[in-house]
Amino acid sequence: MTALPADHAPSAASPSVLSASKSALLLTGTMFMALALYYFIGVDQGMVSVFGNDMHIHEFVHDARHSLGFPCH
User: Fold this and answer.
1) Are the CB atoms for 26 and 18 separated by under 8 Å?
2) pTM above 0.90, yes or no
3) How much is the pLDDT for 21?
4) Angle, CA of 27, 32 and 33, to the nearest 5°
5) pLDDT tens sequence across 38-65
6) Element (H, E) at 73
7) b/e per residue, 35-73, with b = 16+ CB within 10 A?
């Protein structure tokens, strides 16, 4: 097996650097999604739902609520 020439040697991977504005946008989007997920799994009870008196979301995430320790009965 022959050695590769120096100009074909694999280079070390360098981490990518995000700009401050891109980092802030990514953090804001992540926080919004996390809060929305927390609301729909942990807070939405149907009576105070953002969609009115509708229990569809509550019933859809019902088992996840209990496994995460949120009471709902």
Assistant:
1) yes
2) no
3) 93
4) 100
5) 887 777 665 556 666 667 777 777 777 7
6) none
7) eeeeebbbebeeeebeeeeeeebbeebeeebeeeeeeee
Q: Angle 34-39-40 (CA atoms, 0-180°, nearest 5)?
A: 100
What is the Cα–Cα distance from 49 to 61, expressed in whole angstroms?
13
**pLDDT of 1-47, one tens digit each?**
566 565 665 667 777 888 999 999 999 999 999 998 888 777 766 55
User: Residue 65: CB partners within 8 Å, gap ≥ 6?
Assistant: 41, 42, 58, 72
Q: Which residue has the tokens 């990514």?
A: 26
